[in-house]
């Protein structure tokens, strides 16, 4: 089935579909099933990550689909504990996916963690704090420079960042050894956290912006918001469609996640919001006491200050 999903042109010249399937908390078979359902429903864009532990099953669904590779847009990401080992980690990702290349490789968070500790993903020190690498030893700038090298292999079509605040992007762009402007910045964006200033800044630098947790993440709290429900009723659609269509209206790329076939399908049914509706959704956070982050990094450092 083909769907009429709008695209955005990246600074590499490639087109990225504005709606992609999110796959966090979609593993142990769910990553496979949801990717199969998404590709059947007409999605051509899938967002995975080493951290999601689903690259192998997502890749299997992609390969089995029979859809020509060039018709798909596949993203994966490097996790903080791997930031010092870019080439090795990327090769592992591509092997797990079973693909010749990825369309986009993102740095998941701008902080390097040591690879040791009992927990592979959040290694702790004996005092219980998270084992973060001293930035003088290795920083996100070092990782990004290693990611630039991957572009030369042809196995990565574009590189980008995630969870960077404006200051970190400025620092990145000011570094003389940074020669490639990130194609994408992936951040938490939904009506309770529109981050308009950061979105505008990225756009002014030619960086496309991807909205993660567009429904408010686990349990989809955005879908019970009064304004969203009101507009959904007026338009005769599911509230999820309104939250996703708002992200498209504001020229971002949006990554709704679901493991249910009917929701995966429904989330692709966009409506064209009027500017009045879009602006009303822009204002939701103001009515609720200001912006609210729903996905907080477990290691608790103030990455967004
Ligand atoms: P979402 O905002 O996409 O919400 C997912 C939740 O919404 C799940 O509980 C899902 O339930 C539910 N849901 C989905 N569609 C519907 C629907 N139509 N009606 C009712 N409920 C629905 O959350 P995520 O945090 O997963 O964000 C989306 C994606 O963004 C991730 O999967 C990941 O790819 C990316 N991401 C990136 C991060 C980063 O640091 N770069 C951080 C967080 C996310 P169910 O599955 O049971 O249907």
What is the count of DSSP helices, taking H or I runs of 4+ residues?
A: 11
Sequence stretches where pLDDT stays below 50 over 5 or more residues: none
User: What radius of gyration results from the CA coordinates?
Assistant: 19 Å
Question: Helicity, in percent?
Answer: 25-40%
Structural class: alpha/beta
The order of strands across the largest sheet is: 3-4-5-6-7-8-9-10
Strand segment tally: 10
Beta-strand fraction estimate: 5-15%
How far the N terminus sits from the C terminus, by CA atoms, comes to 44 Å
Report the biggest beta sheet as strand number plus sense, adding barrel if it closes.
Answer: 8 strands, parallel
Q: What form results from the Cα inertia axes?
A: globular
Bound molecules: NADPH dihydro-nicotinamide-adenine-dinucleotide phosphate
Which short descriptors sum up this protein?
single chain; 305 residues; alpha/beta; eight-stranded parallel β-sheet; two-stranded antiparallel sheet; 11 helices; 10 strands; 12% strand; binds NADPH dihydro-nicotinamide-adenine-dinucleotide phosphate
In short:
The chain has 305 residues and is α/β, with parallel strands linked by helices. It has 11 helices and 10 strands. The protein has helices spanning 30-41, 55-65, 86-97, 140-151, 166-174, 196-204, 226-235, 239-249, 261-266, 275-282, 284-287; strands at 7-9, 15-17, 21-22, 45-47, 73-78, 104-107, 159-162, 184-188, 208-212, 253-254.
């Amino acid at each position: 089935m083909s769907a009429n999903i709008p695209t955005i042109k990246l600074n590499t010249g490639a087109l990225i579909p504005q709606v992609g399937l999110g796959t966090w908390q979609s593993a142990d078979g769910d990553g496979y099933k949801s990717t199969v359902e998404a590709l059947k429903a007409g999605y051509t864009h899938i967002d995975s990550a080493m951290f999601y532990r689903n690259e192998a099953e997502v890749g299997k669904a992609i390969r089995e689909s029979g859809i020509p590779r060039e018709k798909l847009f596949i993203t994966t990401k490097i996790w903080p504990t791997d930031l010092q080992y870019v080439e090795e980690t990327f090769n592992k990702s591509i092997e797990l996916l079973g693909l010749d290349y990825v369309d986009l490789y993102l740095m998941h968070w701008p902080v390097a963690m040591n690879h040791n500790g009992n927990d592979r993903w959040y290694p702790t020190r004996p005092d219980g704090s998270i084992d973060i690498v001293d930035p003088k030893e290795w920083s996100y700038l070092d990782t990004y420079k290693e990611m630039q090298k991957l572009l030369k292999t042809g196995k990565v079509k574009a590189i980008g960042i995630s969870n960077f605040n404006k200051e970190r992007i400025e620092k990145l762009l000011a570094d003389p050894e940074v020669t490639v402007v990130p194609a994408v910045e992936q951040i938490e964006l939904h009506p309770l956290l529109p981050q308009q200033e950061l979105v505008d800044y990225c756009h002014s630098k030619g960086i496309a912006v991807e909205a993660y947790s567009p429904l408010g993440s686990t349990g989809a709290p955005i879908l019970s918001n009064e304004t969203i429900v009101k507009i959904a009723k007026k338009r005769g659609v599911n509230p999820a469609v309104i939250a996703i269509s708002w992200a498209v209206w504001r020229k971002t790329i949006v990554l709704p996640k679901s493991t249910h076939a009917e929701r995966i399908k429904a989330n692709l049914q966009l409506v064209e919001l009027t500017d009045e509706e879009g602006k009303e959704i822009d204002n939701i956070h103001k009515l609720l006491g200001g912006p609210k982050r729903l996905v907080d990094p477990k290691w608790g450092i103030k990455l967004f200050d």
